[in-house]
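Let us work through a complete example step by step.
Step 1: write down the sequence.
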Amino acid sequence: MSAGAHEPVSDGGSDVQPPVGIDELLERVRAGYERIEPRQAYEAAKAGDALLVDIRYAALRERDGLIPGALVVERNELEWRLDPQGSHRAAEATSHSLRVVVICNEGYASSLAAQSLHQLGMHRATDLVGGFQAWKASGLPVV
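Step 2: predict the structure and record it as C-alpha cells.
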C-alpha cells in the first residue's frame, strides 16, 4: 500500500514530518522573527542600521524600478553573497549581526529567504512586509 498525498513517507528508518502547505510554512517562518514595514526599513537603511537586499528577478526590477542603495542579489545567490564566512560574499556582508532586510516583489519569497539567512546565523535578518510593491505604494524612493 502506498502513502497517500498527505501522509508522511518513510525512508526506512528516520522520522519524516508530514507535508506542510506553503501558507502554514510561511506562518511558522514568520513567527521566528519580526518583519519590518516599508517606512521602518527606509529609516533603518537611511540611518545605516540596515542593509536592504532586493532579491527580485531582473524583469521585475526593469519593470518597476529599484530602491536606491539596495543591494541587488537574485534569490538563487542570496546565501552565497550574504554569508559573512562565504568565499563568494558581497563586500557588504561583514558580520552575522548585520541587519538585513530582504525584499521580494510582494513579501512572500522574502520570508523564506530571511529564514534561510537565519539558518546561516544571521539572527537580525528580516523581510519587508508587502515587498517592493508596498515600498512603492508607500511613496518611498524608487529609481
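Step 3: interpret the result. The chain has a mean pLDDT of 92.
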